[in-house]
Amino acid sequence: MFETLITEEYGNESTGLATGIYSWPYIKMTLNVHWFHVTYFHSEQGLQFTEVIFFTNLNQLIEFKENKFVEITAVELVSPEHMNKSGRWKMNQLKEIWCGEVPNAPDNSAHIFVLNDKTQYVYPAIEIPINNLRNKKIIFSI
Question: pTM score, two decimals?
Answer without folding.
Answer: 0.86
